[in-house]
């Protein structure tokens, strides 16, 4: 598995990263044994970058990833987590968490203050049980952007200067706000969710050029657009950006699949390969929940794609020419 360095930092990641959202019970419950098997399969496949967050299953993802990584040589893996939501204990009273399939033992409290960031990091270190976090992101700060930019990021930069973390940045779905952060801070890396995929090229307008100009790395997340691009042929009830896919989006996905099949490539293969065509993109992060998913995605990722695929997609009007120039 090839590795890339993040921005001007000394932190390296494998081009394919393990996304920890599903380990928190995203979409469906997940037991510890299945989660551990998925992580073991990722390691066997050469994945050495693992991303998580307190938000994912109100701590379940961090705990599960930490339990696995504590058995691995520390110098051989890169771990990232996020700040912006503090987890406050509460009586679950038989309720389930609204976002993940776990008991509601905690509630999330937005906090991008310096004290909130420091507490969040301390809590994450306790849940994971590792000695340090390599990459730290401001998480989902779209509705709290000024606080994240003016208070949260300086706290991240302080932790980086102290050597507590190796690289810092933000993870969001909004390329406009990420562009502002890239231009106004000395971030090392940004994680962009769902906005640089085969079906959404909006990051090409401002964010990716800004990242090239400022020497900031991009990690592309949600490259399957929450499911639509995860299978060779999208189902009629496929989801796009966490909602039902429109008929226009479905038609476009099938048109892309037609071109892929002509080149002997599957839609998921192309979806994973596409972001890495851009010089700013250091890697992709795929959320995975089972060992089988890990192996299938890893094999597809490492299979490669022919150059002619991208030219034909551009000629068919299905791909922005700037993506392959």
What is the structure about, briefly put?
With 325 residues, this protein is α/β, with parallel strands linked by helices.
User: Count the helices. How many?
Assistant: 10
> Which architecture per CATH?
Alpha-Beta Barrel
Write down the CATH topology: TIM Barrel
Number of DSSP-assigned strands: 14
How do the SSEs run, as a string of H and E?
Answer: EEEHEHEEEHEHEHEHEEEHHEHH
- The whole-angstrom Rg is 19 Å
Residue share in helix: 25-40%
**CA-CA gap between termini:** 25 Å
Largest sheet: 8 strands, parallel, barrel
- The portion of residues forming beta strands comes to 15-25%
Low-confidence stretches: none
- Structural class, please? alpha/beta
Strand order of the largest sheet: 3-4-5-8-9-10-11-14
Give the CATH superfamily.
NADP-dependent oxidoreductase domain
Whole-number total of structural domains: 1
Mean pLDDT: 97
- Can you identify the CATH class? Alpha Beta
Q: Rough shape?
A: globular
